[in-house]
Amino acid sequence: MKIYNTLSKRKEEFVPVEPGRVKMYVCGPTVYNFIHIGNARPMIVFDTVRRYFEYKGYDVNYVSNFTDVDDKIIKKAIEEGVDADVISKRYIAECKKDMEALNIRPATKNPLATEEICGMLDMIGILIEKGYAYVAADGTVYYRVRKFKDYGKLSHKNLDDLQSGFREIKVTGEEGKEDPNDFVLWKPKKDGEPYWESPWCQGRPGWHIECSVMAKRYLGDEIDIHAGGEDLVFPHHENEIAQSEAANGVTFAKYWMHNAFLNVDNKKMSKSLGNFFTVREISEKYDLQVLRFFMLSAHYRSPLNFSAELMEASKNGLERILTGVEKLKELSAKAAAGEMTAEELENKKRAEELVAKYEAAMEDDFNTADAISAVFELVKLGNSTASVGSSADYVNGIKETLEKLCDVMGIITEKKEEMLDSEIEDMIAQRQAARKAKNFALADEIRGKLLEMGIVLEDTREGVKWKRA
Ligand code: AMP
Ligand code: ZN
User: Fold this and answer.
1) Can you list the pairs that 347-351 forms with residues at least 24 positions away whose Cβ atoms lie under 8 Å?
2) CB atoms within 10 A of CB 65
3) What residues does ligand 1 touch, defined as CB less than 6 Å away?
4) DSSP-assigned states of every residue in 64-97
5) Whose CA is nearest to atom 11 of ligand 1?
6) Residues 6+ apart with CB under 8 A from 301
7) How many Cα atoms within 13 Å fall on the side-chain side of residue 468?
8) What residues pair up with 259 in beta bridges, in sequence order?
9) Of 407, 400, 303, 414, which Cα lies nearest the Cα of 348?
10) Which ligand is nearest to the CA of 25?
């Protein structure tokens, strides 16, 4: 299996640290709002990577954090007049709902930064002891990048080039730094902010240290894959390497994988540009399986432009696959017992070649775009060769293969049960009753359940209206 490694800038054969096991760490979102579909790209891509390893029989330990202490969370908490953890808990719950709707397998562990402070204090202490970090007069702890000789190896940057870039920038509040490239490991609290005790000052951790500590705690000092969006290469992942390798004394991650951006009009979809759609918004227009299929229709290292046309094309493509599987299910019920015919044996061989093509695409740095074309060919083969009276072995063979290959991509082939109008109206009445009783949690849960069944509610002046998505 070949994986493109950002570290070496080439595809490398995958050799796990421990045979039969994969230890993966994927940087998760900062939770101060609903996630947008750009944030969903790494979630979908690396869940698919995980699923493929599992399909190949590996035991995957998949860890992905939530950054639950951060300036943006604090800002939102001040705006709403609540504690920061009210904001982070709320959006972690919402993010988990979105991930479930995107059929993302739950991680082995989703650590929270605020629950790992002890480990961060330990690692920062070790870095100070070894001379890789220093304490400024105000209690801020900085990482001394010049001490780490490999600094820049991931982002292929040179410290002196970085230095000349920094000379132009006057940073206030960071006068205690020995070098402009040094970064914060621990910083003093400001009024009204959450803080923890430490040997250096009451304060909170920098962002980079949390991932080094969580990866170490839940996966060990040496991991196989560390992943995230390409904006994380520098400085986040570069700094993680500097921290982990200096503290632990061994190579941190063997393979560094980065997805390209989801763009809108060739610009990165981001909160700051305001050109984003939340996963929740998209779920009101499309089944989220369509979004998942859309994301996998391009190679993860290629930029992908989001557009209504491409979503429509993905919707049609997905429909073609699901209808193909549905037809095979019907034929399976009417299939004949007994041996496969010579022609069926021939076609079965063709199907096996397509599975090999699918696997070859996935093993070439997870080329899901080519893997999907193999799935389309398999659907076509099924459509053109299976009919009433085909042997059960043949029909079931193709059907089960398709189901398995779709499952690797996280595509659910089971058709959703259609709800009857009367059942929908009953649930809407229950939601109204819950709202009247001010049980908003229950009301939201009912709305969520309806959404999962493809029913979108709209609260209007004339009452609640609903439609099928
Ligand atoms: P953040 O909450 O901004 O730290 O982002 C969480 C994850 O989403 C990171 O891996 C980012 O690299 C990734 N990400 C954010 N925006 C995009 C985008 N437009 N396209 C692809 N990945 C993104
Ligand atoms: Zn991280």
Assistant:
1) 347/381, 347/385, 347/394, 348/394, 348/397, 348/398, 350/381, 351/378, 351/381, 351/397, 351/398, 351/401
2) 24
3) 27, 29-30, 38-39, 41-42, 228-229, 231-232, 259, 261-262, 268-270
4) E-BB-SSHHHHHHHHHHTS-HHHHHHHHHHHHHH
5) 229
6) 4, 258, 259, 260, 365
7) 8
8) 229
9) 400
10) 2
Q: Is 48 exposed, middle or buried (0-12, 13-18, 19+ CB in 10 A)?
A: buried
pTM: 0.89
Which atom of ligand 1 is least distant from the CA of 26? 10
Distance CA 186, CA 326 (A): 56
Centroid of ligand 1 to alpha carbon of 35 (angstroms): 9
Residue 243 has, within 13 A of its CA and on its CB side, a CA count of 32
Question: Do residues 258 and 230 touch, judged by C-beta distance below 8 A?
Answer: yes
| 3-class secondary structure, 103 | coil
Ligand 2 centroid, distance to 211 Cα (angstroms): 5
The tens digit of pLDDT for each residue in 381-406 reads 999 999 999 999 999 999 999 999 99
Separation between Cα atoms, residue 136 and residue 133, nearest integer Å: 10
Distance 232 CA to ligand 1 centre (A): 8
Q: In testing the pocket of ligand 1, which one of 30, 33, 36, 39 has its CB within 8 Å of the most ligand atoms?
A: 39
13 three-class SS: strand
Burial of 446 (0-12, 13-18, 19+ CB in 10 A): buried
Q: Find the length of the chain.
A: 469
Query: What does the pLDDT look like over 38-69, one tens digit per residue?
Result: 999 999 999 999 999 999 999 999 999 999 99
What is the whole-number distance in angstroms between the Cα of residue 212 and the centre of ligand 2? 8
Using CA atoms, how far residue 253 sits from 3, 24, 147, 184, in Å, is 13, 9, 20, 22
354 Cα–ligand 2 center, Å: 37
Q: How far is the CA of 188 from the centre of ligand 1 (A)?
A: 27
Q: How many Å apart are CA 216 and CA 357, to the nearest integer?
A: 37
The ligand with the least distance to the CA atom of 111 is 2
Specify the residue with its C-alpha closest to ligand 1, atom 18: 38
Which atom belonging to ligand 1 lies closest to the Cα atom of 269? Answer: 19
Please check the confidence at residue 92 and state whether its pLDDT lies above 60: yes
Q: For residue 224, what is the DSSP state?
A: E
Model confidence over 23-36: pLDDT tens digits?
999 999 999 999 99
CA of 153 to the centre of ligand 1 (A): 22
For residue 261, the ligand 1 atom closest to its alpha carbon is 20
